[in-house]
Design brief:
It is a single chain. The protein is of the alpha+beta class. The protein is about 35% helix and about 35% strand. It has one domain. The strands form two sheets. A six-stranded antiparallel beta sheet has the order 5-4-3-2-1-8. A hairpin with a 3-residue loop joins strand 1 and strand 2. The protein starts with 11 loop residues before the first helix and ends in a 5-residue tail after the last strand.
Length: about 190
């Protein structure tokens, strides 16, 4: 009795075609994933500095709008430094922002009046944005002689009170510039 063996195996050509198809699919998947990772890394590096700059300008705006007319702190500013009183978390707080060109950073310092009165140890200023080429502040007021809004580079509370607006301009190392004008509700 003869047994008929039916061989159901793949031929060499069929096997090579399948291997080639899998190789092409694998290479295309790997190249698309690696390209996606490179693009993601490149965009993540730029976006972090961009996001920090935008968030901190917005925070400055919120704190300026929460400003209070508190004579013991006042409102003082120069081209690269601003100091004012604000009501933050139900406490009167002395808030200051300063640009340090040698560090290429913007620092923020906030101390509550309660901490000052209780003679607590002062906390150091914290760098909130790094990689900054330039940051400048200008202070707006209404000039009755020319009937225009004008901006000064320096502001003194004892002479001028609280400004109508503060314009903050920040330039990152990559050349990206952000500008924000904040109108202060408590100004006269």
């Amino acid at each position: 009795m003869k047994f008929l063996l039916k061989k159901s195996a793949f031929t060499l050509v069929e096997t090579l075609v399948v291997v080639a198809l899998f190789a092409v699919i694998g290479v295309s998947l790997m190249s698309s994933f690696s390209m996606g990772m490179r693009v993601w890394k490149r965009s993540a590096d730029v976006n972090i500095m961009y996001r920090k700059a935008v968030i901190n300008l917005e925070r400055l705006g919120q704190e300026l709008r929460a400003g209070v007319n508190y004579p013991y702190i006042g409102f003082f500013g120069s081209k690269d430094h601003i100091e004012f009183a604000a009501l933050l978390r139900d406490k009167i707080t002395n808030v200051s922002y300063a640009y340090a060109p040698h560090d290429k950073a913007v620092s923020r310092h906030a101390v509550t009046m309660q901490a000052v009165l209780e003679l607590e140890e002062p906390t150091p200023a914290r760098k909130v944005v790094t990689g900054v080429d330039n940051m400048s502040f200008s202070y707006g007021y209404f000039d009755v002689n020319s009937s225009q809004y004008l901006f000064l580079d320096d502001w003194n509370y004892t002479k001028n009170g609280i400004p109508l607006a503060v314009k903050a301009a920040l330039t990152l190392e990559g050349g990206e510039t952000f500008e924000k004008t904040v109108f202060i509700p408590i100004s006269q």
